[in-house]
Automatic annotation (TrEMBL):
It comes from the Bacteria. Coiled coil: none annotated. SUPFAM superfamilies: Metallo-hydrolase/oxidoreductase. The lineage of its organism: Bacteria, Pseudomonadati, Myxococcota, Myxococcia, Myxococcales. Keywords: Exonuclease, Hydrolase, Ligase, Nuclease. This is Ligase-associated DNA damage response exonuclease. It comes from Myxococcus llanfairpwllgwyngyllgogerychwyrndrobwllllantysiliogogogochensis. Transmembrane segments: none annotated.
Length: 341
């Protein structure tokens, strides 16, 4: 942005209130955590999209997922990516965040000043959603879920190839391979990445089914799937790949698979010891959030003269940015980052 124009002395366009991030000139909240009159929603994960708001505004691409989250009868208005709307004295628009289907950054413009609220985002390619779009701004509110130098992601295609080799190895010895992953976003990305490598059917837990079908309805190509609950009791799952949410681990549901090897797909698998402590046989480092290099690149790409960090490692990221000469500080919110969703 134009460094000759500074908005530092103005009242912040977005502030933290007991209900959530609030834009007073526009009269709306962004991803509020308590019921409000008007809520702009970046994406449909539970820590960002909560029920009980009077009116919602989200992306057209994310509407089906948002309705699943907050209720089909909720008052939801939508915008296409890049489409502008005037709310109060603020012009708002949504721009792709590359996190999950329909995810968005929120751009706010008021009296020549531009803020961007990132929501959750990633810069890596993902066949299930629109790619991240750089939006220039004066102030950038960025997530920092994986805001530490240790977090650096491998190419997702290489991770998918590793998953397929793991599946094949278990097939060869007659074991099922149960892969735990978050129900919204991660499961669909895994199915889409594997669809580039094979056309086998994967079995899925009931918690994933509606979300997988929502992605199919949006035209996302994934492996064919079958609900575990639709398989006749007593049928062997030897050699099968089964996707399930982490909450299914250790439950009686797991008894259906007999001898099984378990895996977990998450950015947290980058930390040595996490897989062992959580009792998984394999860990696959795959995240729908920006890693450390991508966070730094995004801050630079926005041209922001001020950066506010939230989620996860907000303070370490802000401290590092300050050391690099960026005006940065953490912003306290209850967003969870990579949570079981």
């Amino acid at each position: 942005m134009d460094a000759s124009v500074s908005f530092q002395a103005r009242r912040p366009l977005v502030t933290v209130t007991p209900h959530g991030l609030y834009c007073e000139p526009g009269g709306f909240h962004i991803d509020p955590w308590r019921p409000v009159e008007r809520a702009l929603i970046t994406h449909a994960h539970g820590d960002h999209a909560r029920s009980g708001h009077q009116r919602y505004l989200g992306t057209r691409a994310g509407e089906a997922l948002l309705r699943r989250r907050v209720g089909a009868d909720s008052h939801i208005d939508t915008l296409e990516y890049g489409e502008s709307l005037k709310l109060g004295d603020v012009t708002v628009s949504f721009h792709p965040a590359g996190h999950v289907l329909g995810s968005a950054q929120v751009r706010l413009e008021h009296q020549g000043e531009v803020w961007v609220v990132s929501g959750d985002y990633k810069r890596a390619a993902d066949p299930t959603c629109a790619p991240f779009e750089v939006v220039r701004c004066h102030t950038f509110i960025t997530e920092a879920t994986f805001g530490l130098p240790i977090f650096r992601w491998d190419d997702a295609r290489e991770v998918a190839e590793d998953m397929l080799r793991w599946w094949d190895a278990n097939r060869a010895v007659g074991r099922s391979a149960v892969l735990f992953c978050y129900a919204l976003g991660k499961a669909q990305r895994i199915l889409a990445e594997l669809a580039r490598l094979t056309d086998r059917t994967a079995f899925i837990h009931g918690a994933l089914h509606g979300l997988v079908e929502a992605y199919r309805g949006a035209g996302v190509k994934m492996l064919p799937t079958q609900l575990v609950s639709e398989v006749e009791k007593g049928t062997s799952f030897a050699g099968a790949l089964v996707l399930a949410p982490p909450s299914a681990g250790g439950s009686t549901w797991m008894r259906r698979f007999g001898e099984a090897e378990t895996g977990f797909a998450s950015g947290w698998m980058r930390v040595r010891g996490n897989r062992r402590r959580r009792g998984f046989d394999r860990g696959f480092v795959l995240s729908d959030h920006a890693d450390w290099p991508a966070l730094l690149r995004t801050v630079a790409d926005t041209g922001a003269e001020r950066v506010l960090t939230t989620h996860g490692s907000a303070e370490p990221l802000a401290r590092y940015l300050r050391e690099q000469g960026v005006d940065a500080s953490p912003l306290a919110t209850p967003f969870e980052g990579e949570a079981e969703d």
